[in-house]
Amino acid sequence: MSDMTKQTKATINVGDVTTDMAVVHGSVGPSVIDIRKLYGETGMFTYDPGFTSTASCESKITYIDGDEGVLLYRGYPIEQLAEKSDFMETCYLLLNGELPDAGQKTQFVKDITYHTMVHEQISFLYRGFRRDAHPMAVMVGVVGALSAFYHDSTDIQDPHQRMIASYRMIAKMPTIAAMAYKYSIGQPFLYPLNELGYSANFLRMTFGVPCEEYKVDPVIARAFDRILILHADHEQNASTSTVRLAGSSGANPFACIAAGIACLWGPAHGGANEAALNMLTEIGTVDRIPEYVRKAKDKNDPFRLMGFGHRVYKNYDPRAKVMQQTCHEVLDLLGKRNEPLLQVAMELEKIALHDEYFIEKKLYPNVDFYSGIILKALGFPTDMFTVIFSLARTVGWIAQWQEMIADPLQKIGRPRQLYTGYGPRDYIDISKR
Ligand code: SDX
Q1: Active site residues
Q2: How buried is 2 (Cβ within 10 angstroms: 0-12 exposed, 13-18 middle, 19+ buried)?
Q3: Structural contact between residues 165 and 155, judged by C-beta atoms closer than 8 angstroms
Q4: Between 81 and which of 85, 121, 281, 344 could a Cys-Cys bridge form, CB atoms 3.0 to 4.6 Å apart?
Q5: Pocket lining: 294 vs ligand 1, CB cutoff 6 Å
Q6: pLDDT confidence band for 277 (50 / 70 / 90)
Q7: Does the predicted model carry a pTM greater than 0.85?
């Protein structure tokens, strides 16, 4: 693509109408053509289902370069944050734009820790669900209901209430998620412990029982914390765009996050980690991989290799590389190095990365490919994988929601359409149909 950095305007000629539009350059990445006056001057809309060529907003939070396999949170490469930071510090960075100093970090961790308990009435909400309900259905319901309990932090025009609601969401997601798991297996809920870190607290609430002390393995907690860092934000993906669109109407943050959880659940998005593990389980053994690669390449077969491909990454997803390393660490620690699923995953990755079809379509393993194997090795059931993705992504959704609400130019999101239905026609009485 030629160097467009010097461009300052784009011209569209429609019939005898010529419209000049500003070209706006970001700090890094593609520039944009500001088409806001296009309809007013030409009477025409742009058309971009799936938004493959559309920037929906300006943002300073996360930058992705799909060709170079780059992911930056507020400018910091994901590889460095995964190696040197922790999830609480990453949350502070995404929310505030800078890494905290020691005092800021201590205060932030304390503020989040002291919001981890949920209103006691919320525990009764779970009883309305069947025990075998998918935990993502429970998450959508319980998170959506939070505004019924915390209406003192739903006035989005009040920056203090926005901050409290944000902290409450980040702090309570692990508790709500762990309660969804406990409810599904018929075990009692555990309360969070303020002496534990964010990830350790979640692991204890998930795997601990009231009958005995639960010791969290620090290596496992660190590995889990890294998984949360990798999933924390990802520019304007489908669920983040859902949160922004819901928030643009002035809906309260709890309802917006519930909408994001609902969107993330889809197998083309955050549900892919559950689908990828189910796929690896279905393949079962290395010798069956060619059959599934054939199915994935067959245009008449709807089967896709779950955990492969990405709208933006047309090179390796940088998160997948870190996830693969973490996968090997966790499986080695747990003595599951020869986990059959890992063997199938590594062989599938090798075959796919050398297959003409996948090379031509630039289909690489994405963040969901390895995460399922790690989470299964840590003891989570498959239907909890996307719940954990939603737990991690809540800070990204909140940071993007905050950025949108604070934007003085923010308007309600209201796309238009290309209408191809009937033009006006008269009603026909049923006796004449
Ligand atoms: C996430 O957006 C984000 O940032 C999302 C995410 C985040 O952090 O928020 O990164 C998280 O959602 C990761 C993606 C998880 N999804 C999966 O792993 C599901 C499997 N992947 C595909 O469904 C697909 O790759 C998508 C949905 C991820 C991306 O789809 P696109 O960009 O719309 O691409 P496409 O569907 O138009 O596919 C392009 C071509 C097609 O072939 P043609 O019609 O051009 O002949 O590639 C083929 C597709 O058939 N293709 C695949 C494939 N993915 C795309 N073929 C086989 N297996 C696959 N996985």
Answers
A1: 310, 368
A2: exposed
A3: no
A4: 85
A5: no
A6: very high
A7: yes
